């Protein structure tokens, strides 16, 4: 792919490696540039890297009215030798196209998506935050730009990649367990809907539920299926639990659950973890009974932003609380977190193809 580089003048760009003074937070900061590409006349074209800034769009742009917009979330890590590696972005590119299909956005070549990410990191490599546990969070997204008010797929789109030097997603970090609300009031997805995609509207629909969770002192909602009998996932991560024999269980992927790349990775890491990792239909009734009997000893969430987030307790709308184990971070979760982040940072060897070095070309 030919990329047109329209960069900020050298003097206005970051001059030295970014060493944050305080907490970096999640998703607040941006790097100097962004990648853009347009879809017009039936093809993706005009790949360019430009200064991060406003995007001009007509008020009739269809993404604004009908939510034809999808995104991905990926990460890159710096190793001790200063080189940057992306983590499984081939899977993000594949899932972007799965989301695209679900909301009728044209397919975007997966190699092109990965090249766009690598080219942008290369240009803004000084933005990698040199701080324990921090990384570059990568946000590729596609949105409909045609100026038309009838409801049908847009004929014009923009693909954009922005990056955010980031730390932990939950303020409590990975060392503290969060509480989730189990609710029958709100649902994230329905069969035949858009739940298995990263369509922007899924996240708009989760905001009211997250507010409801906060009213109960919970960090997020653990969604049930539309019959209120099976566990699905959390607003920004898949859910898992650990049985007392060490088996890690992730609810089976359906068209109401996002196929998490972190979950897919864990499913392949059983041997490294020394336990079985599998998927099952998880019934709420059994889940509660098994926590109460001590059969389930740990629980948490998997996600790019969330990594492995421990869940210490669940609250129901009648204010009943159930605590998992002793409510703190258990040994299996610690092991998963250490192994996963160890592979991301290059301290533990990852399976072939999981990491890709960002070659130095322009940066
Ligand atoms: N589920 C939802 C709804 C999400 O938004 C995310 C985050 O992308 C995940 C699960 C975790 O997926 P992944 O591990 O690919 O980041
Ligand atoms: C991610 O984990 O990358 C996500 O996309 C979740 C996001 C909603 C913060």
Name some characteristics of this structure:
363 residues; D-amino Acid Aminotransferase, Chain A, domain 1; D-amino Acid Aminotransferase, Chain A, domain 2; 9-stranded mixed β-sheet; 8 helices; 29% strand; globular; binds 2-OXO-4-methylpentanoic acid
Outline the structure in words.
It is built from 8 helices and 18 strands. It has 363 residues and is of the alpha+beta class. The protein has 2 domains: 6-168, D-amino Acid Aminotransferase, Chain A, domain 1 (2-Layer Sandwich), CATH 3.30.470; 178-345, D-amino Acid Aminotransferase, subunit A, domain 2 (D-amino Acid Aminotransferase, Chain A, domain 2, Alpha-Beta Barrel). Strands 1, 2, 3, 4, 5, 6, 7, 8 and 18 form a 9-stranded mixed beta sheet that branches. A 6-stranded mixed barrel has the order 9-10-11-12-15-16, surrounded by 4 helices. Helix 2 packs across helix 3. It binds pyridoxal-5'-phosphate (PLP) and 2-OXO-4-methylpentanoic acid. Pyridoxal-5'-phosphate binds at residues 73, 233, 236-238, 258, 260-262, 302-304.
């Amino acid at each position: 792919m030919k990329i047109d580089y329209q960069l900020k003048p050298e003097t206005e760009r970051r001059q030295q490696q970014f060493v944050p003074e305080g907490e970096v937070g999640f998703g607040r900061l941006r790097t100097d540039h962004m990648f853009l590409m347009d879809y017009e006349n039936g093809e993706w074209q005009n790949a360019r890297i430009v200064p991060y800034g406003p995007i001009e769009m007509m008020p009739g742009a269809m993404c604004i009215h009908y939510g034809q917009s999808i995104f991905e979330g990926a990460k890159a890590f710096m190793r001790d030798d200063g080189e940057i590696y992306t983590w499984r972005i081939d899977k993000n590119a594949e899932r972007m196209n799965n989301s695209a299909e679900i909301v009728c956005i044209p397919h975007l070549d997966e190699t092109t998506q990965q090249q766009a990410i690598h080219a942008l990191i290369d240009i803004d490599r000084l933005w990698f935050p040199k701080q324990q546990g921090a990384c570059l969070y990568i946000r590729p997204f596609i949105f409909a730009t045609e100026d038309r008010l009838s409801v049908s797929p847009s004929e014009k789109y923009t693909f954009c990649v922005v990056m955010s030097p980031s730390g932990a997603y939950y303020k409590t970090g990975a060392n503290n367990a969060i509480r989730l609300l189990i609710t029958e009031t709100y649902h994230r997805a329905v069969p035949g809907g858009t739940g298995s995609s990263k369509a922007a509207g899924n996240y708009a629909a989760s905001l009211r539920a997250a507010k409801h969770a906060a009213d109960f002192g919970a960090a997020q909602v653990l969604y049930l299926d539309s019959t209120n009998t099976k566990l699905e996932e959390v607003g920004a991560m898949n859910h898992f639990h650990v049985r007392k024999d060490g088996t890690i269980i992730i609810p089976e992927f359906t068209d109401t659950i996002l196929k998490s790349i972190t979950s897919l990775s864990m499913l392949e890491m059983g041997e490294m973890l020394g336990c079985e990792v599998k998927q099952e239909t998880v019934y709420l009734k059994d889940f509660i009974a098994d926590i109460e009997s001590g059969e389930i000893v740990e629980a948490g969430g998997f996600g790019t932003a969330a990594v492995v987030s421990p869940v210490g307790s669940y609250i129901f709308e009648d204010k009943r609380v159930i605590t998992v184990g002793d409510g703190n971070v258990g040994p299996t979760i610690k092991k998963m977190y250490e192994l996963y982040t160890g592979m991301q940072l290059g301290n533990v060897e990852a399976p072939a193809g999981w990491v890709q070095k960002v070659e130095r070309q322009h940066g």
